[in-house]
Amino acid sequence: MEQKNSNKTGIIFIPDISGFTKFVSTTEIEHSRKIIGELLEVLLDSNILEFVPSEIEGDAILFYKMRDIPSLKEILTQIEEMFLNFHNYLIDITATNICTCGACKSAHNLSLKFIIHLGEVHELKIKQFNNIMGADVILAHRLLKNSVGLNEYVLFTEMYLNTQNEKDINEYCVNLEHYDNFGEVKTYYLSLDYLREKINKIPFQNFVPETFNPDIEMKIFADPFSVYSVLIDNSKKMDWVPGIKRIIEDNKLNRINHTHICEFDMMDIEFTTSSAGTSGTKRFYSENIKVGKYINFTDEYLLVEDNGNTNLYYRIVKRMDNEAGILSGFLTNIFILMFIGKQKRALKKFKSLCEIK
Q: Which of 8, 62, 283, 323 is a Cys-bridge partner for 303, taking CB atoms 3.0 to 4.6 Å apart?
């Protein structure tokens, strides 16, 4: 354990995801946990002022900086970078979402606020981690619970703004907070609504084919939501696709354009989620499949609710690779004949897996 720069002035910078508690307590924990993790990564990757991350605290990141204290203009530029990257990532989640669980459907309701404070900071290095301690660190955390009646804003303490040009804060709202052991704390806040016009628009994606001629069909005695949840969980392919040795994918949730690779003894098969949608009692899901350089096709699943159970329809759609030409078509046709036979066996296991109570 090493102590560094004991009791020196530093800036504390905390981006905090608002709506986190409700999000993780009222939605599916596995998906909400992954979504929050992805958003925290976005904030870390948006750290253009090179703040030192001290702690990740569930829904917030404690950043600090001991020298070269950023100006107000630099801080606002940093906030804009994080705010837009955060919300554009939420837009991407919404646009590419294929899951109908509460977490995935409500992620767009999350918001972001920032706390900026200047004070005495005690640095403590434990192995590779930089931690900060002290009364001003505690105060910065207390400021997360305040009387500002907005969802998205930046809150500065007077201690930081006293180091800036006074004319730059004329448009800020004055706010007084009272905390045990600290007394009255004067703060200034600014709504971040002005940044919302810079957020990307949500592209509409919801596809369900009007006609569907299946290669395989079966009845599954489980509700469509449960069946669909198993279908889009790539890790569960280990339980119903025979012969898989390993699945390679990142730790993010399955979305449009998400790719995973299934390793078999004789080959690797690449799956890329291509489309999904819901319409009335129907749920649709498709994947583009690639094997080597020449074999390309799409498999599609249509789930239809039937008195609380699910009718599953499956088909394969050929995709012509113009660059690969005739050879691609020939090899793809041969592979599809083999693949449909394997899918018949796989979908029987899928049915059994879905029907486990």
A: 283
As a whole number of Å, the CA-based R_g of the chain is: 26
Domains 2-198 and 216-354 fall in the same CATH topology: no
Per CATH, the homologous superfamily of domain 216-354 is START domain (3.30.530.20)
Rounded to the nearest 5°, which phi and psi values hold at 334? -65, -45
Domain 2-198: CATH superfamily, name plus number: Nucleotide cyclase, GGDEF domain (3.30.70.1230)
Structure tokens at 264: 């078999």
Parse the chain into domains and list their residue ranges. 2-198, 216-354
80: CB partners within 8 A, 6+ apart: 195, 198
Residues 36-51 pLDDT 10s: 999 999 999 999 999 9
Beta strands in 180-294 (DSSP E): 183-191, 216-220, 246-248, 259-263, 268-279, 282-291
Confidence of residue 319 (pLDDT cuts 50, 70, 90): confident
Bridge partners of residue 179, in order along the sequence: 183
Contact of 156 with 192, CB cutoff 8 Å: no
Over residues 92-144, the pLDDT tens digits come to: 888 888 988 888 888 888 999 999 999 999 888 777 667 888 999 999 999 99
